[in-house]
Write a sequence for this structure.
């Protein structure tokens, strides 16, 4: 089986590649990397088990060559601009990367001789403004995106549905709620806190933790549970054209993350709110209902919230 992962060098892409390698030695795994970003980082240790293809997803010809070279049976489309605050600063780049990249991928597959299963990695941010009586959020909930990133993910999602309906392509759509876990970038809230604390513990930073909105409530998924769900989503247990939430069903406030890290930290620290960490608009509550996916596949998360936070902190302690 030939498997193509777009964005393989990223947080979720690298974990997915590792999981697939562990799952079966019979998989031939291809991954896209951008020519200007040759840092292999997270996949350096497994690069000999991968076939890496230079590809800018916004370049149609490059995407076409990637499909021809990889001849995929399954495509995991993870390549995207994934950071919400960045989308406020660079909305054009976010839209171009996420929307045009997805359109190029779907068009090249449609015009090719291959008929792979394509999993489009959506986001809980698509739901946006969620009312109190709408939680936990089902797949049928109205989409009210509140950021350029969220709008781009809604468009990716609906492009997948359109290509399924119009061309009968094998599209699976997932909406994963907040990802956390080891190797998460310092821009993700849990990793941002862990990175600061690790430096405080090493004496490299004053004992002050910069925070943003502490009231937001999120459903945090361990990335290792999520990539397992991605693989399951491409099996016969799930249906073409369907959208599936990937969520734990539990919500934790950002304040609760801080409280847990205060327990795990070896040194005390104070909190200071940083205006730069505040968004123009923020989704107050995002808690997912993954009943549909669980009933179809039997998937259940294996990592607890506290376990994931501890692993994130340990990762950043090693980096410090």
């Amino acid at each position: 089986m030939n498997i193509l992962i777009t964005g393989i060098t990223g947080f979720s892409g690298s974990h997915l590649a590792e999981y697939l390698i562990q799952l079966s030695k019979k998989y031939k795994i291809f991954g896209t990397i951008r020519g200007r970003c040759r840092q292999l980082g997270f996949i350096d240790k497994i690069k000999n088990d991968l076939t890496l293809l230079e590809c800018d997803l916004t370049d149609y010809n490059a995407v076409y060559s990637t499909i021809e070279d990889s001849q995929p049976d399954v495509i995991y489309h993870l390549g995207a601009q994934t950071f919400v605050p960045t989308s406020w600063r660079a909305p054009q780049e976010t839209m171009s990367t996420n929307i045009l990249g997805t359109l190029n991928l779907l068009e090249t597959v449609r015009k090719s001789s291959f008929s792979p299963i394509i999993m489009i990695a959506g986001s809980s941010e698509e739901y946006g403004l969620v009312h109190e009586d709408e939680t936990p959020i089902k797949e049928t909930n109205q989409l009210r995106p509140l950021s350029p990133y969220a709008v781009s993910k809604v468009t990716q999602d609906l492009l997948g549905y359109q290509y399924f309906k119009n061309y009968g392509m094998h599209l699976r759509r997932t909406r994963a709620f907040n990802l956390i876990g080891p190797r998460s970038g310092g821009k993700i809230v849990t990793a941002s806190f862990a990175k600061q604390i690790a430096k405080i513990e090493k004496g490299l930073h004053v004992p002050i933790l910069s925070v943003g909105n502490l009231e937001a409530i999120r459903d945090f998924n361990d990335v290792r549970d999520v990539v397992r769900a991605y693989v399951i989503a491409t099996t016969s247990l799930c249906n073409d054209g369907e959208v599936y939430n990937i969520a734990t069903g539990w919500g934790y406030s950002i304040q609760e993350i801080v409280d847990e890290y205060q327990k795990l930290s070896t040194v005390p620290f104070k909190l200071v709110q940083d205006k730069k960490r505040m968004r123009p608009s923020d989704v107050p509550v995002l808690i997912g209902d993954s009943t549909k996916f669980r009933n179809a596949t039997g998937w259940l998360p294996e990592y607890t919230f506290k376990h994931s936070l501890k692993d994130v902190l340990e990762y950043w302690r090693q980096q410090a």
About this structure: Residues 91-111 form the longest helix (21 residues). The domain at 182-218+251-285+303-319 is CATH 3.90.25.10 (UDP-galactose 4-epimerase; domain 1).
